[in-house]
């Protein structure tokens, strides 16, 4: 927008600036600069409206990643008590699906952190995958939880990241904690929709999340194919490399109407989009075209 305005010769009141969404200080600084430009005293104070939260109790945890200095846990919380009003109106945790977001309000913090749900209402529990980040307030608290401990949380629907009811094949692509909602989609695939899952990890001995469940899910027909990429070892292999290795089948699935769902870090998602652009070029397709058709969706962070 700033570039377009400059090209039209519009005068600039303030240089383009950015504000960290978790920094009230940044917001106040920008307000002061705006006031100076306008010639008035302007003091902006951020007063966040806290969402109404529900107490969730941890019932189990599974730990991974210590060997590769990336401690990560699959955290399962008990399904909370839902009031009659919430059941009737669908509020709170009365209705949710895999891929929706759960907001956790950390102790000592005012800004909630959002995590993708690896479970749906029918599973009867609430599950997320959390990696501990150095100095991370919320991730540090979550990965320190023991069964019986509680957190304050709220639900945020994420309707743009759902597999839909179609019988067309699904291509699920994720790395690291991005496997959470993708594993949830597989677990909930009781109709045996064809699912091809590409998962990137550091090492199978340390962070193959849901590795215990996948053999059973394959036997039950909930996932048609699982392709893994290991980034630590003699031959580093990333999820975009796995896609290129399976280029012929991936292109055929997409030509036949497959839906692509990507979850994980922004760099990974960018690499996946680049790989798919190469794979689809001979067919005259691009990720942008698939997005316009609603057949390519991302949940990136």
From TrEMBL:
<dbReference type="Pfam" id="PF00175">
    <property type="entry name" value="NAD_binding_1"/>
</dbReference>
<dbReference type="GO" id="GO:0050660">
    <property type="term" value="F:flavin adenine dinucleotide binding"/>
</dbReference>
<keyword id="KW-0285">Flavoprotein</keyword>
<dbReference type="InterPro" id="IPR017938">
    <property type="entry name" value="Riboflavin_synthase-like_b-brl"/>
</dbReference>
<dbReference type="GO" id="GO:0003958">
    <property type="term" value="F:NADPH-hemoprotein reductase activity"/>
</dbReference>
<dbReference type="InterPro" id="IPR008333">
    <property type="entry name" value="Cbr1-like_FAD-bd_dom"/>
</dbReference>
<dbReference type="InterPro" id="IPR001709">
    <property type="entry name" value="Flavoprot_Pyr_Nucl_cyt_Rdtase"/>
</dbReference>
<dbReference type="InterPro" id="IPR039261">
    <property type="entry name" value="FNR_nucleotide-bd"/>
</dbReference>
<dbReference type="InterPro" id="IPR001433">
    <property type="entry name" value="OxRdtase_FAD/NAD-bd"/>
</dbReference>
<protein>
    <recommendedName>
        <fullName>NADPH--hemoprotein reductase</fullName>
        <ecNumber>1.6.2.4</ecNumber>
    </recommendedName>
</protein>
<dbReference type="GO" id="GO:0010181">
    <property type="term" value="F:FMN binding"/>
</dbReference>
<dbReference type="InterPro" id="IPR017927">
    <property type="entry name" value="FAD-bd_FR_type"/>
</dbReference>
<feature type="domain" description="FAD-binding FR-type">
    <location>
        <begin position="51"/>
        <end position="164"/>
    </location>
</feature>
<dbReference type="GO" id="GO:0005829">
    <property type="term" value="C:cytosol"/>
</dbReference>
<dbReference type="Pfam" id="PF00970">
    <property type="entry name" value="FAD_binding_6"/>
</dbReference>
């Amino acid at each position: 927008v700033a570039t377009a305005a400059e090209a039209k010769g519009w005068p600039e009141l303030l240089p383009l600036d950015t504000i960290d969404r978790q920094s009230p200080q940044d917001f106040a600084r920008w307000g002061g600069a705006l006031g100076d430009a306008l010639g008035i005293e302007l003091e902006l104070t951020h007063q966040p409206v806290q969402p109404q939260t529900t107490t969730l109790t941890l019932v189990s945890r599974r730990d991974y990643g210590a060997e590769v200095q990336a401690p990560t846990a699959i955290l399962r919380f008990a399904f909370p008590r839902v009031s009659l009003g919430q059941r009737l109106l669908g509020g709170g945790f009365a209705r949710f699906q895999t891929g929706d977001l759960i907001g956790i309000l950390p102790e000592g913090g005012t800004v909630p952190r959002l995590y993708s749900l690896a479970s749906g209402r029918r599973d009867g529990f609430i599950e997320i995958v959390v990696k501990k980040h150095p100095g991370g307030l919320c991730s540090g608290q979550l990965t320190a939880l023991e069964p019986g401990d509680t957190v304050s949380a709220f639900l945020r629907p994420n309707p743009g990241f759902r597999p839909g009811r179609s019988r067309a094949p699904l291509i699920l692509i994720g790395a690291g904690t991005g496997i959470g909602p993708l594993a949830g989609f597989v677990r909930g695939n009781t109709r045996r929709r064809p699912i091809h899952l590409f998962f990137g990890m550091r090492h199978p001995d340390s962070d193959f999340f849901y590795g215990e469940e996948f053999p059973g899910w394959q036997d039950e027909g909930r996932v048609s194919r699982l392709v893994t990429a290991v980034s630590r070892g003699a031959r580093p292999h990333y999820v975009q490399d796995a896609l290129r290795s399976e280029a012929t089948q991936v292109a055929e699935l997409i030509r036949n109407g497959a839906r692509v769902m990507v979850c994980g870090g922004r760099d990974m998602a960018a690499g996946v989009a680049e790989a798919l652009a190469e794979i689809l070029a001979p067919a005259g397709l691009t990720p942008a075209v698939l997005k316009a058709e609603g057949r390519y969706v991302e949940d990136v962070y």
